[in-house]
Amino acid sequence: MKIALLRQAPLLMLPALFPLQLMAADNASNTMVVSAAPAGTGLSELDTPAAVSVVSGDDMRHAAPRVNLSENLASVPGMQIQNRQNYAQDLQISVRGFGSRSTFGLRGIRLYVDGIPATMPDGQGQTSNIDIGSIDHVEVLRGPFSALYGNSSGGVINVETQTGQQPTTLEASTWYGSYGSWRNSVKASGATGDGTQAGDVNYTVSASRFTTHGYRDHSSAQKNLGNAKLGVRIDDVSTLTLLFNSVHVDAQDPGGLTEAQWKDNPRQVASNVTLYNARKTVDQTQAGLHYQRQMSENDDLSVMMYAGERETTQYQSIPMATQQKAGYPGGVISLARHYQGIDTRWTHRDTVFTFPVTLTAGLDYETMTEKRKGYQNFTTSNGVTDYGVQGDMRRNERNLMWNLDPYLQTAWQFTDKWSLDAGVRLSTVNFDSNDYYVTSSDPDDSGNRRYHRWLPVASLKYAIDNSWNAYVSAGRGFETPTLNELSYRSADQSGLNLNLQPATSDTVELGTKKRIGNGLITAAVFQTDTKNEIVSDSSYEGRTSYKNAGETRRRGLELALDQEFGYDWHLKAAWTLLDARYRSNACGTDSCDGNRIPGIARNMAYAGLAYAPDQGWYAGGDVRYMSDIAADDENDVKAPSYTVFGLNSGYKWLVQNWTLDLFGRVDNLFDRTYVGSVIVNESNGRYYEPAPGRNYSVGLTVSYAFQ
User: Fold this and answer.
1) Cβ-contact 505, 560 below 8 angstroms
2) How far apart (Å, rounded) are the C-alpha atoms in residues 207 and 228?
3) What is the pLDDT averaged over residues 492-497?
4) How many whole angstroms separate alpha carbon 40 and alpha carbon 26?
């Protein structure tokens, strides 16, 4: 299999100001193409004046389990993506250090799947609904331009699934790995016509099931996932795409370990985890409709509408004595969320004073209604206590959050060498909570807050020659507290954390990109100053409270190389240097001024080499390095640095209409004992989430094309 950098058809655009879209590539340069405009007017990844990385779906699936995004995104500089080995808490992802505070899900990053936000209006997201088996490509945008997507500070991750095309293809895939891990999936894709005539239809439908016993004790999980994408050409100038996604997750929660526990037995769990049977269940279903129309030769309209619901039940390992305190919301969290949104965007192309200009204007509206209930994680009857079961209610509230964001972007081409992109977004986020659980010992905790910021951004690019560009950009980011961050106050105080302020970040970036043969080398240096950064205050028995840290500064350097050579060889390499520090006291009585922000590695490096012909034997290997990571504000506790190696090999058969791909892989080849991720400021000292030792897996994919 040749891991090519070519794309054959235009894909959907991101629903925001700086829409990134892969287009047909120039065969001479063999470079991925990114577009900020409709089909046929694409800019190459080389020419995009921002730090952007694109990973193809083929690369994501190549000799991989196809379960987590963390498997094949390590080649993206500036992104720290870690598998907690805990499917109850999702992956830990940060971009340029934003998102590292998250104890579950994603924060500080905007995530889209086929144009539908996987990040809620409050800024909290999750990756569990992403089907790697049907990904076409993943785009990662870092730096100032991510501000144009609204409520985030670190970056944007956009996942686009495959658009069906002829011939009709059926695929079945299976994978088995260490610790009793299984993944089975099926996919069907195809199209009637070539997509240019009215009535032409394309489709991609997939389903998968994943189960695992888990590397650690009390870490088993299962996930059922379905995804569908149906497109139809209405007439010569308009298309309509229907999107559907559903996921069910049922996972045990092993929690963290102290340093002593990790060194003694990294697979163990704390005793209260099993006593209270810590676990989480998630059910999410969503649907979307994307309408695109060419209004005239110079005007285009895009409307994205979506709606969904997500139900979560989480049993936490909180001691009974703590749960019984006045005002404490219990040890069981029950959430029912309904969310919907619409993003309408108009694009106009014209000439002003002989300069080609593109103008994009839009309005983004998102809303979420949450019913949050809390219960005790135990029952007592006749002097006998049962743990890990739903008990008396301790919380009952209805939360509403919405955002309304108008935005505008312009792109000016002054000369063949000079161009300017500039935009602004006015982001307004509103939070309102109504408390229905009011007693003599638990007063009314209702409240509301509204946040709004102007988010300007600009980038000036200079083309040194046809294969070498440089740019300078600056912008402001905005990140509000999530509903979970507003839900708890520190020191067991009752009520909402309404004193929590939004964080505002100012970023300046210098970057350059150079095409070398069939590859691309990129470099970016940046500085981000943040006021009122939201950080972990304390994390106790699975519940985390948050605070504002005053001022922080991030300075970094990102280097990446993506190179094809010898036709069948592919080299990827990336290095990130990130110095992220407090510039004010974030530790209360102790000064943390100058300390590293916890959860962030100072150095990350990746190198992967693959021999991947179209058919026959293939093989590859990679090495990943992560420097030590501070686990608390005082920097007294750190997860040690580590280097791990992986190898894979397989064989691909192409027999008439059949394709068979059989592979095997080994990860952590030298059986290194290391910490995969940390829980920041964990009050019990259980900071460490261990990673597995040497582990093995095999996989088989069979597909048939009806030609």
Assistant:
1) no
2) 9
3) 70
4) 12
Q: Is the pLDDT of residue 48 over 70?
A: yes
Place of tokens 């839900």: 487
Which amino acid makes up residue 453? R
Question: Residue 156 contacts by C-beta under 8 Å, 6 or more apart in sequence?
Answer: 14, 16, 109, 110, 111, 112, 139, 140, 141, 146, 149
Residues 609 and 301: their CA atoms lie apart, in Å, by 42
* Closest to 487 in 3D by CA, of 436, 450, 445: 445
DSSP label at residue 260: H
Question: Cβ–Cβ contacts within 10 Å for residue 60, how many?
Answer: 21
Contacts within 8 Å (CB) and 24+ apart, 580-584: 580/97, 580/552, 580/553, 580/554, 581/552, 581/553, 581/554, 582/549, 582/550, 582/551, 582/552, 582/633, 583/529, 583/550, 583/551, 583/552, 583/553, 584/549, 584/550, 584/551
Place of tokens 């110079």: 298
Count the Cβ atoms, other than its own, within 10 Å of residue 304: 27
Q: pLDDT per residue over 405-416, tens digit each?
A: 999 999 999 999
Tell me the mean pLDDT in the region 145-151: 80
Question: Which residue in the block uniquely carries the two structure tokens 């390095």?
Answer: 625
The tokens describing 216, both together, are 């650690």
- Mean pLDDT on 372-376: 95
CA 154/CA 449 separation, integer angstroms: 23
Residues 98-130: tens digit of each pLDDT: 888 777 778 888 999 999 999 888 888 889 999
Task: Report how far residue 295's alpha carbon sits from residue 292's, in angstroms, rounded to the nearest whole number.
Answer: 9
Please say whether the dihedral angle defined by the alpha carbons of residues 120, 123, 126 and 130, taken in this order, is positive or negative: positive
Termini Cα distance of the chain: 20
Residue 594 CB neighbours (<10 A): 10
8 A C-beta contact, residue 20 and residue 38: no
For 575, list phi and psi in degrees, rounded to 5: -140, 135
